[in-house]
């Protein structure tokens, strides 16, 4: 007698149904519990990255004159170069915010339009600029954070 015949003889429809119902009653699906391992590792990675960003301090690069700022912004616009702009604004702890990095996309009176690499087009007043720095081209390959 083969295993198929043995299974057919051992379980008729009623006993198979009873066995299934018993297994269903006893088995406890862990549901989302089985995904927590994946969630925790992703969540921990995000928290570590945010913590690293919070610990990073941005120091005063020195106040530039309006003429020097205007010359660098004009050069960046005409040469289509990337710039790093440090604004006058300070956070709640008296530290500078991270530089805005991107390309100048235009100007209207005292307003500057920056196509920022992470947030898109930003608009701010010329008087809000503390320091401007010309940057080289963006690296295609960057080390992993």
- Physical arrangement of strands within the biggest beta sheet: 4-3-2-1-5
Quote the beta fraction.
15-25%
The overall strand count is: 5
The major beta sheet can be summarized as: 5 strands, antiparallel
Give the rounded overall mean pLDDT.
79
The helix content is: 25-40%
Rg for CA atoms? 31 Å
Distance between the terminal alpha carbons, to the nearest Å?
Answer: 63 Å
Poorly predicted ranges (pLDDT <50, ≥5 residues)?
none
Shape: elongated
Structural category: alpha+beta
Q: Count every helix, treating DSSP H or I runs of 4 or more residues as helices.
A: 4
> What's the order of the H and E elements?
HHHHEEEEE
Can you offer a commentary on this structure?
39% of the residues lie in helices and 23% in strands. It has helices at residues 3-10, 13-26, 36-55, 66-79; strands spanning 82-87, 100-108, 111-116, 120-125, 129-135. The chain has a 5-stranded antiparallel sheet with strand order 4-3-2-1-5.
Gist of the model:
This protein is α+β, with helices and mostly antiparallel strands and 145 residues long. It has helices at residues 3-10, 13-26, 36-55, 66-79, and strands at 82-87, 100-108, 111-116, 120-125, 129-135.
């Amino acid at each position: 007698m083969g295993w198929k015949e043995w299974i057919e003889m051992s379980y008729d429809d009623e006993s198979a149904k009873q066995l299934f119902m018993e297994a269903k009653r006893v088995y406890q699906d862990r549901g989302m519990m089985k995904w927590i391992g994946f969630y925790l590792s992703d969540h921990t990675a995000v928290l570590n990255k945010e913590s690293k960003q919070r610990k990073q301090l941005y120091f005063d690069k020195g106040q530039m004159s309006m003429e020097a700022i205007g010359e660098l912004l004009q050069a960046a616009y005409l040469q289509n170069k990337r710039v790093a702009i440090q604004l006058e604004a300070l956070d709640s702890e008296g530290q500078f915010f991270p530089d805005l990095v991107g390309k100048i996309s235009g100007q209207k009176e005292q307003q500057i339009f920056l196509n920022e690499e992470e947030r898109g087009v930003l608009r701010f007043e010329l008087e809000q600029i503390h320091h401007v720095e010309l940057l080289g081209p963006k690296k295609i390959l960057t080390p992993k954070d």
